[in-house]
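idk why but the lab printer keeps eating my pages so im just putting this in chat instead. protein + pyridoxal-5'-phosphate:
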Amino acid sequence: MPNRPRNIDSYYRPHVRELEPYVPPEALEILAYRAGFDPAHASKLDFNENPYGPSPRVMEALASMTNVHLYPDPIAGELREELAAYTSMDPEEILIGSGADELISLVVSVFVEPGDAVVDLTPTYSMYGGVTLQHAGRVVHVPRGDDWKVDVPAVLAEIERGAKIVWVCSPNNPTGGLATEEEIMPLLETGAPVVLDEAYFEFSRHTFAPLIRMYPNLIVLRTFSKLAGLAGLRIAYMLANRDILDQAHKVKLPFNTTLAGQVAATAALRDRAYLAANLDALLAERQRLVTLLREQGELDPYPSAANFLLCRTSGDAPGLHRALAARGVYVRHFPKPRIDDCLRISVGRPEDTDRLLAVLEEVRPAARRAEAVRA
Ligand SMILES: Cc1ncc(COP(=O)(O)O)c(C=O)c1O
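predcted complex ->
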C-alpha cells in the first residue's frame, strides 16, 4: 500500500514560498479600455521605453530574418563584434543576455550563496533586491543621502562585513542622477564585485566601462530596451573581464537570447544615425518637459541624466497618479520611503509632453489654479 502522497507544499523551497509575487503592470490596452480611451491617444510614460521605437532598418532586418527553425548563436558572435566597436571593448569582454534583468540574475548566480548579503543604494531599481531574494540572498539597503548621494562609508562597512555585491545604478532609476568617481573608486578599491547598471547610459554619455581593464571586480550592464527601442525583444549586454564572463557563461542557459533579439540589436547598432537622431529628440524633449513642468508648478522635477524625471508632487502622489491614468497618461508611482510623494515620468514625444501638461492643468486643484492665475 503506497504512502499517502505528500502535499506539494512540503516540496517548495522555503524561501520561494516566502517571496512576494511580481504583480505585472496592466497592459496599456486594458487601462485605456477601462478609462474609455483609444490607446493611440494615450501617453505611455511609465516604463522608460523609447516612444519612437527602433530604426526602420531593424524592422527590415527582422522581416528578412531566415533560419528561425534553427537555434540562435548561443554566444551571439555577430552582435558581440558590432558591440565591440560600439563599446571599445573586446568581444571576449561582452556577454549577451535576454534583457538586463536576466544579466542581473546571472551576476547573482555567479556570486551569491544562500544567506549572502548584497548592497543596494535605495531608492533604486527594485530588481537587484528582487533577484537576490529569488536566490535566497539577503538585501542590505544603504539609503542614499542628500541629493541622492551614495553613503560611501556605510557601503564600505557592509563590504567589510562580507557583502558580496554592490549594485550601483547610474543614471539611477528612479532618481535620475549619475554616480561619481569619488563614490565609485573607493568601492572598486575593495575588490568586491561592483555592478554599474548603465541601462540609461546613452542619455548621459557617461560610463565607467573603461575602468574594467583596471578593476577586475567591475561589471557594467547595458540594455537595448531604452535608447535602441527594443524592450519587447529582450536583449542586453554585460561588460566585464574574461574571468567573470567565464563564470557567467557556466550559469547562463545556452540559448538565452532569441534570434530576433540578436538580429534586431545588430541592425540597431548599424544605424547609428537613427540612434543619434532619437537621442537628440529625447534630450531636447527632456529639457522642454523640465522647463514646462517648472513653469506650471504642479510637479517639481529632480535633475536627470536619463530619459525620465522623478518629480515631487505637492502631496497626494497616488491620487495624481490615478487622475492622470484616468485621462490616458500613464506614469509610475512607487509606494516606497522617501519617494512615495513622487511620480516618475518617462520622456516621450512632444505630443506626450503636451498631453501631460494639459491633463495636469485639468486636474490641478481649483485653488492652486486660481493662485497661478493671480501670480
Ligand atoms: C536600471 C535598470 N536596469 C535594468 C532594467 C531592465 O532592462 P531590460 O529591459 O534590459 O531587462 C531597467 C528597466 O527599466 C532599468 O531601469
